[in-house]
Amino acid sequence: MDLVELERSDLEAALTARGYPAYHARQLFAWLYRRGVGDFARMSDLPKPLRDELERSAVVSTPIVAQKDVSRDGTTKFLLKLADGRFIESVYIPETPADTFCISTQVGCAMKCAFCLTGKMGLTRNLSAGEIAGQVRVLLAETGLLGQPFNIVLMGMGEPLHNYDETMKALRILHDEHGLALPERRITLSTVGVLPALERLGNETLMPNLAISLHSTTEDQRDALVPVNRKYGLQDLVDACRAFPLKRRRRITFEYVLLEGVNDTPADARRLVTLLHGIKAKVNLIPLNEAAGIPFDRPSDERVNAFAKALADRGLTVSVRKSRGRDIRAACGQLIVDGATPSTGQRAAGLL
Ligand code: SAH
């Protein structure tokens, strides 16, 4: 039994089935998540027979830090090795304004967005709930932030709504009041808009902030940039957002990667305003993070500001995402590992 794959209710059931009282699950959650301790011998408030039984029959799988790169701006990218030898990346972004962990949900990604390096990997496999929440345990230990407030964004490798069940389970584990008790307003789920899953999300009790990777204002262009649009089209996505049951005072963030001369014209800005009309929206512009093999250019700051102003002048709330960690290939769309071997200086250099 791998304890980190269990929600607290599962753990309670497993304990009672073995004849132990359910409240030991609360103690175990506190050790694993609140105190960051996975060693049963140190769990001093658990009875000795239970500790012995856990030693015999339970494990606490935790991703291993294979490599750590620190950017000039303090952003730190972690290459994490999973139990089956696969690699993923997670990123610590200090003070944006709150400390933020950017977490992966899959090894690779099946979405193949035209400007994203992770898409080039293809999808190797889904992460389990324990692997998703495990990234948070590792980053808390590595950054010394255990006990401090922090945010998580599901914006690392993978499409969270393409791994719905494990992603939501991980969020419930992280949200558990006896564990990290991560508040839902500190969680942001970013998605290309897998519509059936988006509809399911609308019915969840645990409701993260929603960010939609829109990137385009016409069906044809979005078909090309975000291929899943051929299945779940732009208009249907926007309609689903309009119908999404938002909590009080919340808004949907629409992410829009700016590609020079492609989707950053005044006409694009006007169409974007029309498209989002009537939605409690804010727009987050992401000037392209360039990389070898990505056939687009990053617009100049002037162009970015002009686009932002065109939206703001028509009443939209707009922000421009600061690219953090570009020098270590840790920024949006720059996460890529070859899945089998750790990233080495040599391999990284080949990609830059
Ligand atoms: N699969 C999720 C999370 C992905 S990453 C999603 O698509 O929403 C978070 C954001 O970074 C997405 O909006 C994604 O489209 C964007 N992104 C991808 N590649 C990028 C790049 N090269 N430059 C800037 N943003 C990029």
Roughly what fraction of the amino acids lie in strands? 15-25%
Distance between the termini: 42 Å
- Which ligands accompany this protein? S-adenosyl-L-homocysteine
Number of helices: 12
**Mean pLDDT score, rounded?**
94
Question: What is the H/E order?
Answer: HHHEEEEEHEHEHEHEHHEHEHEH
Principal-axis shape: elongated
Structure overview:
- This protein is α/β, with parallel strands linked by helices and 352 residues long.
- 34% of the residues lie in helices and 18% in strands.
- The chain contains 12 helices and 12 strands.
- The protein has helices at 8-17, 23-34, 48-57, 117-121, 129-143, 164-175, 195-202, 219-225, 234-243, 266-275, 301-313, 345-351, and strands at residues 64-70, 76-81, 87-93, 100-102, 106-108, 123-126, 151-154, 187-191, 209-213, 252-258, 281-287, 317-320.
- It has a 10-stranded mixed beta sheet, covered by helices on one side.
- 44% of the residues are buried.
- The structure holds S-adenosyl-L-homocysteine (SAH).
- The site of S-adenosyl-L-homocysteine has 17 residues, from strand 8 and strand 10.
Element layout with pairings:
Layout lengths: L7 H10 L5 H12 L13 H10 L6 E7 L5 E6 L5 E7 L6 E3 L3 E3 L8 H5 L1 E4 L2 H15 L7 E4 L9 H12 L11 E5 L3 H8 L6 E5 L5 H7 L8 H10 L8 E7 L7 H10 L5 E7 L13 H13 L3 E4 L24 H7 L1
Parallel strand pairs: 4-7, 7-8, 8-9, 9-10, 10-11, 11-12
Antiparallel strand pairs: 1-2, 2-3, 3-4, 5-6
Helix pairs in contact: 1-2, 5-6, 10-11
